Amino acid sequence: MHSPGVPEIEADWALFLDLDGTLIDIAATPDGVVVQQGLPDLLSELSRDLGGAIAIVTGRARETADRLLAPWRPPGGFGHGAELRDASGRLLDEHALPTVPDAWATRLAAQVSAWPGVILERKPHGVALHYRGAPERCADTQAALAGLLADQATAFDLLPAHMAFELRPHGANKARAVDVLMQAPPFMGRRPVFVGDDVTDEDGMRAARALGGFGLHVGRDFLGGPAEVRDWIARGRARLRQEVMHART
Ligand SMILES: O=P(O)(O)OC[C@H]1O[C@H](O[C@H]2O[C@H](CO)[C@@H](O)[C@H](O)[C@H]2O)[C@H](O)[C@@H](O)[C@@H]1O
């Protein structure tokens, strides 16, 4: 179904796409997600039609995003913008932001072992505590991460997420990914369009709007979930293909 508030994908766009809750349906655990068959190919084909200007901007670690979207290895911002990769595959500012100390991870692992259903997810520049499997631990997981920040409150931010809390290095955010990637080809000169579903995506949406583009929200604009976003992408791809074929005849 066509969502009335959502513009159709245009050939001069640069697309910035969130992963969980936008392209991929939410699952009970981070490892339990199912990438719809054909999605990486579809994205890679649309990327060709947009001159390579599609980036994935996700809270997931780069390695995880690459595994989920294999064989496609898009440019993007990973770890909420802490890890940036440009369209040539080059990593940018790789060591610019702090990593979570091992001692913190050890302490969290000990706490989580006493909380059945809570999952600890480590990433190169952050850490998440997921309480989807134990909703009664919401406050405990938040307090565990907040407790770590007592010493280093300026180095990391505590973020609320979908049934999770995360630590993200201060300075990493999804706007950073949009702003940095838009400074170079193939993104430069295009209209940035950010699509996301979560509170951390609002930074990316604001950055896209500030550069003359659109920030589209899965719930508010697509009036649905990842299935509606995937349909929109498939429709955009088909239309751009037709335009190319038409231009050739
Ligand atoms: O920026 P995103 O691509 O939206 O990633 C945000 C976080 O997504 C993952 O956690 C969320 O999705 C899980 C799978 O559906 C779900 O089980 C969990 O409750 C959600 O919080 C991922 O695990 C995190 O690392 C991302 O930061």
TrEMBL record:
Its cofactor is Mg(2+). Belongs to the trehalose phosphatase family. Removes the phosphate from trehalose 6-phosphate to produce free trehalose. It comes from the Bacteria. It comes from Neoroseomonas lacus. Keywords: Hydrolase, Magnesium, Metal-binding. It catalyses: alpha,alpha-trehalose 6-phosphate + H2O = alpha,alpha-trehalose + phosphate. One of its GO terms (molecular function) is trehalose-phosphatase activity. GO terms for biological process: trehalose biosynthetic process. The gene is otsB. InterPro entries: HAD-like_sf, HAD-SF_hydro_IIB, HAD_sf, OTSB-like, Trehalose_PPase. This is Trehalose 6-phosphate phosphatase. Its EC number is 3.1.3.12. Pathway: Glycan biosynthesis; trehalose biosynthesis. It holds the Pfam family Trehalose_PPase.
